[in-house]
Amino acid sequence: MKAAVMYRHSEIPQYVDMPEPTIQNDNEILVTVKAVAIKHFDKGRATGKHYSASAPQENGRIIGGDGVCLLDNGARVYAVGADGMLAEKAVVEKDRIVKVPDGLSDAVAAALPNAVFGAAMALKFKAGIQPGDVVLINGATGFTGRVAVQIAKYYGAKKIIVTGRNQSALEELLLLGADEIISLEQHDEAFTTALKQSHKATPVDIVIDYLWGHSAEMILSCLKGDGAWTNFIRFVSVGSMSGDLIQLSSAILRSLNIQLSGSGLGAWTKGQVKELLTGILPEMFMLAAEGRLTVKTVEMDIHHIAELWEANVANGQRIVVTI
Description:
The chain folds into 2 domains: 2-99 and 295-322, Alpha-Beta Complex (Quinone Oxidoreductase, Chain A, domain 1); 115-262, NAD(P)-binding Rossmann-like Domain (Rossmann fold), CATH 3.40.50. The protein has 9 helices and 15 strands. The chain has helices at 40-47, 106-126, 143-154, 167-176, 188-201, 213-223, 250-254, 270-289, 305-308, and strands at 2-6, 14-17, 28-38, 61-62, 66-70, 76-81, 89-99, 134-138, 159-164, 180-183, 206-209, 232-237, 257-262, 296-301, 317-322. Strands 3, 5, 6, 7, 14 and 15 form a 6-stranded mixed sheet that branches. It has a 6-stranded parallel sheet with strand order 10-9-8-11-12-13, sandwiched between helices. The chain has a 3-stranded antiparallel sheet with strand order 2-1-4, with no helix packed on it. Strand 9, helix 4 (167-176) and strand 10 (180-183) form a beta-alpha-beta unit. The longest helix is centred in the middle third of the chain and has 21 residues, at 106-126. The mean pLDDT is 93.
């Protein structure tokens, strides 16, 4: 079968022939793959740079961890692969399959789940979002950030503040449910002044952070208390696009009723992952099928995997590889 394979000492996957995968246990089935989204997570795992990945193998590793497939009976499903997914055939786990509703394209069904993982899991389980909460999404102009804005609104956020560098992309978020935009392109003093004023007017309850780094330092400094009673703030780290380390003053932690946590592989319980696959993701698929949750995708054929691997897409779009 044909597959997209990453070899050791290579930074770009190749479109090559690979042996068809075999089932290893009773919880696995063989499926025909239709579409796989290419995410930062997949790139990190393919090169061994993500914390959950090992180094690429000498004989190659099929890239991609999830996608849209066909079962033997013709049913269309989203599935998590037992191993690499970006190939004509893949082995998936029976308990990690979600039916794709009619009216939802393969591309959207392939692209949406990772963003739901990065948004809904943080909002629902790590932040415990409640109707009426004020939510700040740091780095909201990316694909997952755009989905987070829509899910936060769906979950009942009273106000959604978004940050990012692309002004036109920030303004698009106002159409998706954001209430206030604060640009990261301005000087630090202007950014912190704007955020402090916003926090004073409507105290932030939840921060969903996709950037970390310096922007997270500025946000935490803006939230710092002065000894008076504060609201309960839940700061959830989901990504680190702006750097993996920050400097954090202990005075910030002592001056606030704040909870710092992370949302990602290893941070969720088995019960939460089960609810994600049996409840949250099917719900989000239906919202997308009804046009109430929108995403942007760019479809490319697997034959062009080497070229598309380093392709840049603008304004929160996601590349989906079709097979």
